[in-house]
Amino acid sequence: MKILLMGNPNVGKSVLFSRLTGIRVLSSNYPGTTVGYTRGFMKVNNEPAEVIDVPGTYTLEPTCEAEEIALKMLKTGDVVISVIDATNLERNLYLTLQLLEKDVPVIVALNLWDDTKHRGINIDLDKLESLLGVPVVPTSALTGWGIKDLVKSIPKASAPHTPARSLNERWTLIGNITGQVQQITHRHHRWYERLEDASVKPRFGYIIAALVLTASFFIIRFIGEGLIGYLFDPLFDNLWTPVLMKLSNFMGGGGFLHDVIVGKLISGEIHFVESFGLLSSGIYVPFAMVLPYIVAFYFVLGLLEDIGYLPRLAVLLDTTMHRLGLHGYAIVPTLLGLGCNVPAVLATRVLESRRERFIAATLVCIAIPCVSGQAMIFGLVGKYGGGYVVIVYATLLLVWIILGTILNRLLKGLSPELLIEIPPYRFPPWQMIFQKLGMRIRGFLVEAVPIILAAVLFINVLFIMGVFDYIANFAAPVITGILGLPKESVTAIVIGFLRKDAALGMLALSPMTAKQMVIGSVVLTMFFPCIATFIVLLRELGLKDFLKSVAIMISSALIAGGILNVIL
Amino acid sequence: MVKSLTELKSDESGTVLKIEGGPGLLNRLGALGIIPGKKITKISSVSMRGPVTVLVNRTQLALGFGMAGKIIVNVNRDVK
């Protein structure tokens, strides 16, 4: 049996899904598209059943790719659980009425049931059931209340075969139904409802946005640094270093294989950033430098997401984003990129057109420094004073705006207009936040880390064989001529093509002025994303657009670096 | 008085009179409950042709400026 979970976005469908299926969850892509969905398994009457979390949809007359997929998936299902936000029958019943017109058994889950009490809403369940002609079960997926009843009622799902109606007929019927089953008692606004309104009004909205983003930045740094200082660094220093030293001794303390695997010893010691070995830097960088910030970043982002703040930010930034050929919602992949560019490129899937996805992904790769990129910026430039760090960030922001504006002008097509629901603020349970965090970290470990390790190995071999010196000779005139960087930094910049962390270590060793460090950091950030992002970008854009994107990266990095060289 | 959503002031309410768009737009907005005859309240708008936030069917929606300009509303003076 195949059970489909269908409903509008923001009705707690995914939470209900994880309540029904537990932990055995698979994320898949609908074949031939970028629309993702999750499936899992449960038991109904002791028979195994497949459960599919269909992408959120408002209508079965599709208005976007995700809704087209939802319609196609509907044809494969044996039972549909129509998930409804009980605090908003009016809007949610539209999709349910459409489902009842189809030839498939339906059962209604009246989710967020506990919220109806706070909001002064009273719904007559029996009457709703008889008016719709299908079972209606109140649930509260967040607490798990009503889930058992829902599962028990699945076999009772029925298809009433109502005739197809027009859009206006459906809304008239909805007016009728809600008039009969729903009573709303008026009551005063709660404090967070006032905040809801304030956060989309420009005057307070921008102040709130600035506060939220600043607070997020400090919380991320606090958690990230805490994890590194108290967990990861001690783990590596006390447990991993002795093992590696034993291995180093065993391998004779030097030689080709030793340098590839363990890395070069620096004054007889292993240096986790500068040794460049597969088992030293290769493991330390992704796990102890990047992972802690990834954890911190996704924790804060997940919180903002689940509370419902991001759509409000999208509204405030829509005007700015439109100049870049994007609509406000593209702020989500952009923010993700500040953590790691890999999920950011993946997240551009939420954007509607190919054109938008291209612009957003290219901009993220060029102008949004990820956690390790930012560590590099602070490490290289920070020692000359905070002012230089500001120059780097300001340059990247300018590049983001200017390049986006240019791409918007050059690429054919219009940027679609924003049309989003602004959900009420909700306070998700910690368990849900950590579950999501766990899924994202797993994603990072599975998507990014293997590629990073493979790249470290590959580059180490090339580096030790002297291939980079050869390329460096070739690129030297450009780097010293246009960017004004010293000859010693050439190899570092070339290696930075593939490994930012390696470039960081090498640049730190080469004699450079503050100005040169600023240029070096900007160019390294813009030049190329890391190898993992590179591969994901190729997968998402296809070869032709990928090559276009890479050409834009290289040329804009050289132009921005050249301009900085002239004006600084 | 007849105005488009962009001309409506914040906190002003009215009834949707018509939507000046093709079937695609009518379908998109219709699925969210923005149809002729519906009561709609403007909550806020962002300056420089930014999006307009409205309340319809007890749901807050944000619409792009261009889209909001196509929604014509009959302003109801006595509905506060």
Task: Give me the CATH superfamily of chain B.
Answer: Ferrous iron transport protein A (FeoA)
Describe the biggest sheet of chain B?
6 strands, antiparallel
Helix and strand content put the structural class of chain A at: alpha/beta
Strand/helix succession of chain B: EEHEEEHE
Number of domains of chain A: 2
Task: Provide an overview of this structure.
The complex is a heterodimer of chains A (568) and B (80). Chain A has helices at 13-21, 65-74, 89-101, 113-118, 125-132, 147-153, 167-181, 191-198, 202-250, 256-261, 281-307, 310-323, 331-337, 341-347, 354-367, 371-381, 386-410, 430-447, 449-464, 467-481, 490-496, 500-509, 514-527, 531-541, 543-567; strands at residues 2-7, 25-29, 36-44, 47-53, 79-85, 106-111, 121-123, 136-138, 182-184, 419-422. The mean pLDDT of chain A is 85. Chain A has 568 residues and is α/β, with parallel strands linked by helices. In chain A, the strands form two sheets. Chain A has a seven-stranded mixed sheet with strand order 2-3-4-1-5-6-8, with helices on both faces. In chain A, helix 16 runs parallel beside helix 22, helix 17 packs parallel to helix 23 and helix 21 packs antiparallel against helix 22 (500-509). Chain A is elongated and about 80 Å long. Chain A folds into two domains: 2-184, Rossmann fold; 204-567, no CATH class. In chain A, helix 3 links the parallel strand 5 (79-85) and strand 6. Chain A contains 25 helices and ten strands. Chain B is an alpha+beta fold and 80 residues long. Chain B has a single domain, classed as Roll (SH3 type barrels), CATH 2.30.30.90. Chain B is built from two helices and six strands; from the N terminus they run E-E-H-E-E-E-H-E. Chain B has helices at 23-31, 65-69, and strands at 2-4, 13-19, 39-45, 52-56, 59-63, 71-75. Chain B has a six-stranded antiparallel sheet with strand order 1-6-2-3-4-5. The radius of gyration of chain B is 11 Å and the shape is globular. The relative contact order of chain B is 0.34. The model of chain B has no long low-confidence stretch (mean pLDDT 89). The interface between A and B is medium-sized, with 34 and 33 residues.
